[in-house]
Amino acid sequence: MSFVKTYFGLKLSHKVAFAFAFGIVFGCAARFVPTLGSLINPEGFRMLGVIFINLIKMIITPLIFALITSSFLSVKDAGKAGMLAIKAVSIFFAMTFVSVTIGIAATYLIKPGIGANIDVQQIIAQNMSSVSNAAQTKHHSSLLDFLINIIPSNIFQSFYNADFLQVIFFSVIFAAGIRKANQVHESVGLAIKSLEKTMFKVTDICMEVAPFGVFGLIVWLIATQDAALIKSLGVIVLIVYGSMLFMVYGVYAIVMAMLGLNPLKFYKKMLPAQISGYFLSSSSAVLPMSMEIAQKELGISSEKVSFAIPLGAKVNMNGTALNLGVSVIFISQLFGFDFGISQIIKVMILCTLGSIGTAPVPGASIFLLSGILGSVGLPVEAIGIIIAIDRILDMMRTFGNISGDVMAALILDRIDKTLDMSVYKS
Ligand code: ASP
Questions:
Q1: CA 33 to CA 417: how far, in whole Å?
Q2: Which of ligand 1's atoms lies nearest the C-alpha of 394?
């Protein structure tokens, strides 16, 4: 009884940390103690993660709508709002480009695909059904299509499809309309503020399930991953992990030091969101947690938190771009293609732009990989090699995506001198 009481008295971040540790111990026991392993069904544990992700999917669009509309109601000057958007998107692009460059440079230098002892055909054959699914969803949308698609033709459909960019677009216009109709302090404006408050509480309720989701997915992963396959493709896993950690713990640390911020504070406070994102493999599932940490623990202003982080969750995909870049160069080496600088630049641009169109959900960008492979003349079926280890890679790219979103909001807030340093240093 006192254990339950202690658990419910903990902060959410501590509950997640606890679930993480307990999940590892339990998962290892299930994998290595046969009697326990035969008693449990790993799928049941995965369902805990699915339940949590579904809860977040349920609330994420109304939450984003309420947050963005409300934050734009507080921005009086349209020019300021436009400037904020331009600065945020520039930071996203710069970060994504640096990230993909690091991944590609590492793969190019280490050359994991040259002389690799991997039975490419066998792995592709094993994963052929996933390959054909991915190939079917392959789409070649141009940048222009992407931009036009930001404007919804039916806002209810945008809500229904949880299309973040369309909902964000509508929210900004809606806020401008409320302002023009002089309704900021009247019924519509007040209703939006109340909706925002309510959605925060709804989020808090759903977030109570986060530790169970993280726990379930850890147990499922430890119990089911194919260790032999991970070993044979270990070098690519190491490159994605090494480059991503270099980006998050090296490049970000330099940026924070240049901005006069102690990086250790950022890393310590971000850890629960990073761990949750890592195991849930979904940036959107961790969005409420990231926003809470950003505002309450890192001292980032509510304006930046409610605009830059949801937008970043959709647009700022540092980890995805890095993972795509590493995979494409690795496959090119494996199939004996010698990419020159112009082709590498093409890959970098495709990965950067492609990552923007990726949904912040588990396994989303593997489908994009097939499109990029086709665009640079590589065999599309080669995604069968990456699919085999995609979950392990997805966890790390999501870790990178989540870290990047909060990092971008932090940079933005620091540049604008609105960061609450007393909260940041606490
Ligand atoms: N799982 C990633 C995320 O949610 C998206 C991807 O598959 O790259 O950020």
A1: 55
A2: 1
The Å distance, Cα 317 to ligand 1 centre, comes to: 8
Look at ligand 1, atom 1, and give the residue with the nearest C-alpha: 362
Question: Which atom of ligand 1 lies at the shortest distance from residue 366's CA?
Answer: 7
Per DSSP, 295 falls in state: I
Which ligand 1 atom is at minimum distance from the Cα of 401? 9
124, pLDDT greater than 60: yes
Residue 122 CA to ligand 1 centre (angstroms): 27
Q: Please, are residues 398 and 277 in contact by the beta-carbon 8 Å criterion?
A: yes
Closest CA to 363 of 65, 127, 33, 125: 127
Domains of the chain are 12-76+85-425 (1.10.3860.10)
322 CA → ligand 1 middle, Å: 12
One-letter amino acid at 291 equals M
Q: Residues near ligand 1 with C-beta < 6 Å? A: 281-283, 320, 358, 360-365, 394, 397-398, 401
> What separation in Å is there between the alpha carbon of 195 and the centre of ligand 1?
28
Outline where 281-426 has alpha helix (H): 283-292, 302-315, 318-334, 341-356, 365-375, 383-387, 390-415, 421-425
**Does residue 320 contact residue 401 with C-beta atoms inside 8 Å?**
yes
Render pLDDT for 77-100 as a digit per residue (tens, 0 to 9).
778 878 888 999 999 999 999 999
d(CA 314, CA 365): 12
pLDDT band for position 138 (cuts 50, 70, 90): very low
Q: Taking the complete model, does pTM exceed 0.90, yes or no?
A: no
Closest CA to 172 of 191, 194, 155: 155
Cα 345 from Cα 363, distance rounded (Å): 25
